[in-house]
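thread: overnight batch results

M.L. [08:02]
morning all. the overnight job finished for the chain we discussed friday. pasting input first so we're all looking at the same thing
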Amino acid sequence: MDGFITKDDLHKTVCKNIKKKRLAAGMTQEELSERINLSHEYLRQLESEKGQKDFSFYTLYKISMVLDVTLDSFLEKE
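M.L. [08:03]
and the structure it wrote out:
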């Protein structure tokens, strides 16, 4: 491929980083879901490697604001 990672790999990276940053902030899934006004189940599926829950850019923006991180930090590879 021409230097791009796959859509699946990008999705997995973002979702892993959401969980990692949430935990670093000392926040539960329930707390974060309430603050971004989405269901706990949605966030649980979003963070799950099996769930493959799609998300909007706006949802990612809200999560970044609540966790006080930059949007690009969700793209960081380990």
